[in-house]
Amino acid sequence: MGALETKAIVAINQTANQFQSSIVIQVGGRYIDVKSILGLSITLFNNQAYELYIQGPDEEEARAVMKSVFEKHGFTLKVM
User: Fold this and answer.
1) What percent of the chain is predicted at pLDDT more than 90?
2) How far apart are CA 70 and CA 65, in angstroms?
3) How many Cβ atoms are within 10 Å of 47's Cβ, its own excluded?
4) DSSP calls for the chain
5) Per-residue pLDDT band at 49 (split at 50, 70, 90)
6) Which residues form a coiled coil (predicted)?
7) Rounded distance, CA 74 to CA 67, Å?
8) Measured between alpha carbons, how far is residue 40 from residues 12, 13, 19, 57 in Å?
9) What angle do helix axes 3-16 and 59-72 make, rounded to 10 degrees?
10) CB 9 within 8 A of CB 39
C-alpha cells in the first residue's frame, strides 16, 4: 500500500467517524464498516466500485460528505 492509499484510507476513516450514522461500503459480497481503519485498509483499492450505505440520524449530511471524500481520492462510488 502506497502513501496515497494510506492517505485516502485515513481521510475516509476520519471523515466517517465524525458522524453518528452507520457507514458501510459493499464490495463484492463483503460489507465493510468505513469507521474501521483495518477493514478499509484491506478492502480499499482504486480499481473497484463500491456501494455506500448510510443509516442514522445524520445520514443526509453523511451521504454528501462521504461521497465527496471518496471521489476526492478517485474511488468509484454508488450511494445507495
Assistant:
1) 60
2) 9
3) 6
4) --HHHHHHHHHHHHHHTT-SSEEEEEETTEEEETT-HHHHHTT--TTSEEEEEEESTTHHHHHHHHHHHHHHTT-EEEE-
5) confident
6) none
7) 11
8) 9, 8, 17, 23
9) 170
10) no
Place of cell 480499499: 44
**Which amino acid would we find at residue 78?**
K
**40 grid coordinates:** 478499509
Strand order in the sheet with 22-27: 30-33, 22-27, 49-55, 76-79
Q: What is the pTM of this model?
A: 0.87
Task: Catalogue all structural domains in the chain, each as residue range(s) with its CATH number.
Answer: 3-79 (3.30.1340.10)
